[in-house]
Amino acid sequence: MNIFKFELKYNYKKAFGFLITTLIFSVMTILYYFALENDMQMIYDLMKGYPEPFQRAFGSELILNGLLGYYASFPMVFILIIQNIFAIYLSIFIFNKELKEKVTDFLYTKPVKRVNIYFAKLMATLTIIMTTNVILYTIIYTLLRYMDSFDNRVFILFTLSTIIIQIFFVFLGILITSFSRKIKSPITISMTAVMALFAFSTFAEDKLRPLIIFSYFEFKYILNNIRLDTNYLLLSIGLIIIMFGISLIKFMKKDFE
Amino acid sequence: MSKKVIETKNLTKFYGKHRGIEDLTLEVSKGEIFGFIGPNGSGKSTTIRTLLSLIHKTSGEGYLFGKDTSIDKSVLKNVGYVPSEVFYYDDMTVIELLEYSASFYSGNYKKRIQYLAETMELDLKRKINELSFGNKKKVAIVAALLHSPKLLILDEPTTGLDPLMQKKFYNLLKEENEKGMTIFFSSHVLQEVQKICDRVGIIKEGKIVEISSIKTLKEEKYKKFIIEFSKKVNKNLFAIENVSDLKIEDKTHSFIYKGDVNNILSLIKEQTILDITIEEPSLEEIFMHYYGNE
Questions:
Q1: Is the ipTM of this complex over 0.90?
Q2: Which of the residues A26, A250, B170, B237 could staple to A178 if both were Cys, CB 3.0 to 4.6 A apart?
Q3: Please, how many CA atoms are within 13 Å of residue B218, restricted to the half-sphere of its CB?
Q4: Can you tell me whether residue B40 is helix, strand or coil?
Q5: Domain check: are B75 and B212 in the same one?
Q6: Is the minimum CB–CB distance between A105 and chain B shorter than 8 Å?
Q7: Do B58 and B195 belong to one domain?
Q8: Do A109 and B81 touch (CB under 8 A)?
Q9: Same domain, B115 and B159
Q10: A213 to each of A61, A195, A200, A210, how far by Cα in Å?
Q11: Contact between A111 and B104 using a beta-carbon 8 Å cutoff
């Protein structure tokens, strides 16, 4: 419990900074809808002239589906990128902190099992991620509701898909840390991992879809079917469990030299 | 509880192909102050880190209070540890760090922290990142002692402490030892270990080369001689028992001798001497003597 509390105390400022930044960006881009509302067809036609990867990145056809379509096309794409950079950064930071600051001798000689340290750190990471999500999405939901009416289920599914992707990146961060001796710059690793996967998702062929987490939950599919693709939902859960298992085993066996 | 506070049997740790420690066997009994000496890279820290399960052994056995810490971490409630290099979470104050450290043990340690901080002249309100290396070492000492452990493991604990503080620290150790604390004191400074330890283990290249009481070690009387003669003398002048590491450069002979210095003085009384130095040999030089005798 003390490690959990310590991690919350140590990282809440980072979480607050991320939350404020994401909120400002989200609210501004969402409010921009008022200015673009009557020109969506023109924007769609304009985007048609751009390369396909660009259209896929911003789900150009979604833009014609009202407020939630616009939300999924623009604000959410950026929120998704920022959120996942934060998710992987936070997990790397929390799990790598003692290695980076050479404090392993302090923490890992306390009468606490390594497995408990792992779970305390994991719980702290997930608590921060979920708390920021609750605040962020409550404000976004309230704002969108104020602007227009829409199907709540679609918004919930959009949100759920982003949370699953975030959890994937949390465990990817832990996995990377487990296999590293020390990560000097968590932010570099985080940005590289997220941006590379996102870029890959924009031009990769359909058969490569299982390799790219960003392609698992297409907003167009959610909008049309009001559900998440079950196969990809199971695949993402499976990958999370595998990363959890491998990182835990590696963490238990790690030498702190 | 076992009378053997520390016990290792053929404890071995390899970092890939590189040797850390090999077949290390030693025992430390309850209430003992055990010195663990060896040059840098000899395996002192590896031994400690393996015992504390910071690193995992390759083979052999290592126990604290009869328990393997990689399996049973609860035994670490009775252990305090001062690492050789001290690093902490920089943006905390000293008291925040010590309170965080205390939170891992049951009990209220506020008075104990105050007492130890006063003894070690440590300002509890300062930020960790503002502290000098010596002050960080003091934080480590207080953190290791605050829960009154039954075993204190020290890895080069006096590095960074000024001589006055070192004296206070030794007094503190003696005080705790009198209350029953077992102390495992790792150092590369022989004189430091000789001051407070009952027994010493000498480690070189990952292997124990000697375990003996300080009394025995002192009786062995190692001395380093550097003698400059007025003219070249017989190369075999010092080819006697207990002389090792003999080096001859022109008219200067240097060597390590274990025994009564008068034996050497009687050998050179017929010679004209320009200069003579008789000094405490370094630990490395004593090691040379050990290997020379093997």
A1: no
A2: A250
A3: 11
A4: coil
A5: yes
A6: yes
A7: yes
A8: yes
A9: yes
A10: 21, 12, 10, 7
A11: yes
